[in-house]
Amino acid sequence: MSEIETVVKFFLNIFRLQTEFVERQNAKCDFQAVADDILTDQVFEFRAECAGKWKTRRMSIRQLGESVESKSTCFKVTYDNVLVVKIPPRTFPSFEVYLKYIQTEKAIATRLSPDVVCLSPAISGILKKIPQIHQIKKHLLETEEDYIRLLLHDPSLQSYLKVGNRLAFFMDLSRYVFLNQILDSMHKKRLRVPEAIYKNRDALFDLDAFETIYGTKHDDIFFQINRLYGNYQKSLDRAVNYTEGLLSIPDYLRTEWFLDGLTGQSPDIASAGYSTDTAKNIESVLSSTINKGEGAITRYKKLVNAYVMQKIFENNRSTMAALIVNTLELISRLKDKAVSVRDLKPDNIFVATNFDGADHILGNPSGYALGLIDLETAISFQASQPNAFEQPLMAGTPSFMTPSQLFANPVLTKLFGNNTSRVLYMQDWYATVGIIFNIVTGHHLFYRTAKLIPEVIRLKKKNAQQPMEVFKKISWNFWQTAASEMAEKIKAHRNRLENLQVNLTPRIRKTIGAEAIEENAILFEILHQMVYSQKFFPNSCESLINTTAESIRSHRLKFEKQKAVSKHSSKQQAGIIFFLKSLETLKMQITRTRALVNLPKKPVTAAELMNILFYRAFYAMYNPTWSERGLPITED
User: Fold this and answer.
1) pTM exceeds 0.70
2) Residue range 38-54, pLDDT digits in tens
3) 227 is in which domain, residue-wise?
4) Could you tell me if 142 and 191 lie in one domain?
């Protein structure tokens, strides 16, 4: 049984209990799916029968985010009100342990309040839906504590909180909307490409209209589609001549069927009054036309897709900028409150206002804030010493996480010392890079990088006695992959990412500036480690520390020329070149970081923001002395 079906049966049982309470007799219940679309919620209809009388109602459900082995799976459920149901990966040993998990999340939520609105689990909301419980204790159930005392006193009632065989968590989402829902709605290309083809049908037969919509550089596509349509018309004419009783086919139907073929739809020929044999002949003509014109149609759809993406960008420019600003405000407030979510993603973020579908409010960042749900992996790093931090759940979502989220606090403390707290909140900064990309493009950023996470887990288990060495070993490959993937994706979506201007708030500028000051101190420390640990130039350490990046580059190029003309290049030559390259990059980064201390009060592009956030996380979590390969790819 799938987890969705398990949740549906949980609410079916609530429906049964509610029906039996009203009817005062047992009910027979079943359910069936009535709507199932990957872009919308799944809808189920419940039916209950009591003494020949039938009652029905509906619920909807949708999984939030991807399933992660060591984390709870979350579902958005609409049943009377909107709820989030969170199913843990394993059963709790006791109800008391279950309550402790709830209290931990509430403590984080309380710490963040009122700066960040958080929804934490509660048992009262779901138990209020079960009338039999209120019949037992009619006047004594008012607060959350009342319900907890009742379930501790009568453990049999705890079964009402079990989805399948596991105690689950429930949160009231009220009228809030998730960030991922907003992004799905904004970027739903799958529906918009066919819509654009139908809407701009005249452009297929009018060159001026085609050029007005798609530009003058793609006229060859217009003529290819036009020829294809002409051949289709001729083939239909032949079908008319050879089909008994078929006199003609109206032009509007010919065009409608052709558009259906272009968009991959099945034309409803029979509804136009044609016989089964005639419909088969017409379908054969259309199918043959589409197959022969596959190349031209593919090019046309790509052109329409680019047009649709550009329209989405233009129509939602202010919304995208505002969502980015409020995401940056969110991570700034988290840092100020000494909290790291450690699984930040669009599925865990909601618009903290009664949204009601009023899209216009999303373009004004000061008109709303972003809130958080699911603090399962969160940690407070308020303690003065990293050794005093509580151990959070070591998990995350691969597309939005770094390897540091898979290692225990003592390992991180040995690797990063007093900078461990910075590593923790930089996990959220790394995730925000992916969120910004998702907001602007509708796509995941770290798709290739996410595939490295299972390998990190495998190596960690295989070398359980050497976690620090594992961390150092996997770090270079992870950050090399992440940096190169980000550079590739920014280049591929440059038109949007470099043209979206974001006005940063004073709080965001202050946060970035403070990070730059702290990072520069760390980079200088790394610079000294790198120089004094190398054996290539033991008598020139002070000189290497004080010289410029340009001077280092000049020396590197000389060694590269020597290596190129040498018949037998040595391992030492390669090591020197790697060292100088890393040193040069590090000095350049120190210069860039210094420039962030006082960001100019002008708009910053989405691409620039992605780089700013990514490289703060990178330099917080990677030490170039861990690998002889030097620094992974960094900013140009």
Assistant:
1) yes
2) 557 899 999 999 888 89
3) 187-315
4) no
